[in-house]
Amino acid sequence: MSSQLTIENLTLFRGDKCLFKNTSFRITQGDLILITGPNGSGKTTMLRSIAGLVEPETGNISWNHKSISVDRQTYHENISWISHKHGFKGGLSIIDNLEFEAHLYNFSFNKIDDVLERLSLSLYKNIPFKFLSAGQKRRASLARLILNKNALWLLDEPTSNLDAQAQDIFKEILNEHIINKGLCVLATHHPEAFENSTSIIELT
Amino acid sequence: MPKKLSLIAGFMAMFRRDLLQSIKSPSQLLNPLIFFIMITATFPFAVNAEKAQLVQIGPGIIWIMAILSYLLTLHHLYLDDAEDGCLDYIMLSPQPLPLLVLAKICAHWISSGLPLIIISPIIGIIYQMQVDTILVMIGTLFFGTFALSLVGSIGASLTISINNSNILVSLLVLPIMMPVLIFGARTIELYQSGATTMPGLYFLGAYCMFALSFSPFASAAALRIGTD
Amino acid sequence: MWIFLHKMASPKYFYRLASSMIPWLFISGLLLMVYGIINGLFYAPSDYQQGDAFRIIYVHVPAAYISMMAYSLMAFAAFIGLIWRIKIAHAVIVSAAPLGAWFTFLALLTGSLWGRPMWGTWWEWGDPRLTSELLMLFLYLGYMALRASIPSITKADKLSAILILIGAINIPIIHYSVEWWTSLHQGSTLLKSGGPSIAAPMLYPLLASIIGLSLFFGSLLLVRTKAEVLKREKHSRWIKDMILGDEV
After folding, report:
1. Do both A34 and A104 map to the same domain?
2. Mutate which: C162, C173, C181, C182, vs B, most B CBs within 10 A
3. B174 touches chain C (CB under 8 A)
4. Which one of A135, A152, B202, C1 has the largest count of C-beta atoms within 10 Å of its C-beta?
5. B159 touches chain C (CB under 8 A)
């Protein structure tokens, strides 16, 4: 069964400013779509509207030909989301945080140690999240992607705060996902870092 | 093979996490409680009341102060999660948002309402209440704080996109909470003058049920609209 | 009928319709009110129980009626605006709120003035009807406060619509408060099974007052809504054409 995200006639305003008008595109398995543009151009807003967090002025977003506002649950079962903010509670450890998300997102918790090993976070897994460095926090956030195994990845600048080594690990993870017929929409300041992208949306 | 989505697991996970969170920030828990104790305890001095007067005004004061200090705790219900990005993850989860909202409301009630209920007998003694009156007071506060969590959640979710919304939440929630305040305080007073408590408690219970039926959905809708 | 309602959803059509309706509503409302108040104040017979003090009924009841009617209108519009996404409904709610609040205040004020000679008190705290009407004033104010705090218009529309719907439970509470609880306030006089229990020479000015004030309220509401529509649609073509057309 092939997965497909269809976006039709998306128009979005931020106050009086029109971010994009009547944008349409389609994403299928193995696609990597990059969203680029200067700060404030609407990359995050576009990602959020694809995720369904922001309601667009006009437009339809469909997952496998079913509108996401009609069948929200199915859509949510297939998304992995990474944003600027990490979405982890500072007082809890990485393990506690991920365990919480495992119940919320219905993914298995078994491989957690391997995943944290891969992201070089094994030493920090029981420390309260707020004591981690920015890079470590970002890597912890990326752990979701591997654990969750969802088809559609919506990522907002996933490589911010990552050193070169961590960025390579991330690209590895991303490539595995794409090769395994995953879909990805990625907002970034550095489109040149992702050579295997299918297409680039440039916002001004 | 993806396992079936368990609503109970989702509810319990959200409930447990929020409860853990409140335990880890004791000041958020304790400050409103201390506020409640301090003001109810100093009221008799300010009013310079006689013993008989204290018995009369006690239920009303305790109820008002319980509501006011409880309103202080509502502020954090969704704002904390909005600040660190957790709210996005809660809203994008396959679990139904009203269910997760209900879990948050229950956790909030346990962490903020139960301490209030447990402290209230001490305040009751300050206001010269008899033991049986204190039991009635606990009964009314039990329903009242739960109703306040439910209705307060609506106020908190409506104001999530507003900075410094503390007062506004109170402003929005108080009119809807007025029946609870009236019935709660009156039931205690009526009991003190010999009437039965059951009608009042039934009303409070019914109000809770009614609020339970729409508050999670209204809060979920307001959250989705508010986080744009 | 449905085509008419569908057309009403368009701001441009609504604007034109409102413009033509306002003078009719205003004048008929004013005439009915004048008839009602003059008759009520001078020509209706004195009440055998309350003497002449009862005459405040000709201001109090219409104001109280409109305070509830305005909120019901707002709740209905909130429902339409949220479920069917009809934008003009939100413009109506915004415009109705301050009017409704003022009428609620007027009802409370005139009620208090009436209460003093009748019940011996300006206000009775235990009374369910007085309390729920006061609650209604707070609901109006809460709505306006919420709107004022949210800069984005679409967000403010939707969130405050939810708030209005939640508060709508107060309307039946106000209406039935005199039946469900013991109250100082008298029971229903007009909307009773068995017909109104008030003498005809007193009844007609009262009805005229109520209907007249409602029509007047309608005209005020339409004027405010027109202004609100202009504010919201300021970028659209038809307003530009309308203004330029006038200048030509």
Report:
1. no
2. C162
3. yes
4. A152
5. yes
Measure CB to CB from residue B93 to each of A48, A55, A76 and give the nearest one: A76
Predicted confidence (pLDDT) per residue in B82-129, tens digit:
988 999 999 999 999 999 999 999 999 999 999 999 999 999 998 888
DSSP sequence for C83-150: HS--HHHHHHHHHHHHHHHHHHHHHHHHHHHHHHHHHS-S--TT-HHHHHHHHHHHHHHHHHHHHHH-
Q: pLDDT, tens digit, for every residue of C113-146?
A: 888 887 887 887 778 888 889 999 999 999 999 9
**DSSP symbols for C178-222:** HHHS--SS---SSSSTT---S-HHHHHHHHHHHHHHHHHHHHHHH
Q: Same domain for A73 and A163?
A: yes
Per-residue pLDDT for A137 more than 70? yes
C36: enclosing H helix or E strand: helix C11-38
* Count of the separate structural domains present in chain A: 2
Higher pLDDT, B136 or C49: B136
| Distance in angstroms (rounded) separating the CA atoms of residues A126 and A101 | 16
pLDDT band at B149 (very low <50, low <70, confident <90, very high): very high
| CATH assignment of the domain containing A22 | 3.40.50.300
A74 and A2 in one domain? yes
Mean pLDDT, range A130-135, rounded to an integer = 91
Sheet containing A152-156, strands listed edge to edge, beginning at the edge strand earlier in sequence: A79-82, A152-156, A183-187, A32-36, A199-202
Q: Closest-CA residue in chain B for C149?
A: B162
The model's pLDDT over B30-77, given as tens digits with 9 standing for 90+, comes to: 888 999 999 988 888 888 778 778 888 888 899 999 999 888 888 889
- Domain layout of chain C by residue ranges: 55-200+220-247
Which residues in chain A have their CB less than 8 angstroms from residue B94's CB?
73, 76-77, 104-106
Question: Is A52 in contact with B92 (Cβ distance < 8 A)?
Answer: yes
Contact A85 B85 (CB under 8 A): yes
B9 touches chain A (CB under 8 A): yes
Considering the domain architecture, whether residues A33 and A131 belong to the same structural domain is answered as no
Q: Do A12 and A100 have their domain in common?
A: no
B37 touches chain C (CB under 8 A): no
Check whether residue A168 and residue A96 sit in a common domain.
no
**Interface subset of A 125-164, CB within 8 angstroms of B:** none
* More confident position, B50 or A99: A99
Find out whether B162 and B187 touch, Cβ atoms under 8 Å.
Answer: no
Residue C166 has its nearest CB partner, among B162, B171, B176, at B176
Below-70 pLDDT ranges, chain C = 1, 188, 191-195, 246-248
Of C142, C152, C167, the CB nearest to B171: C142
- The residue segments making up the domain with residue A142 are 86-148
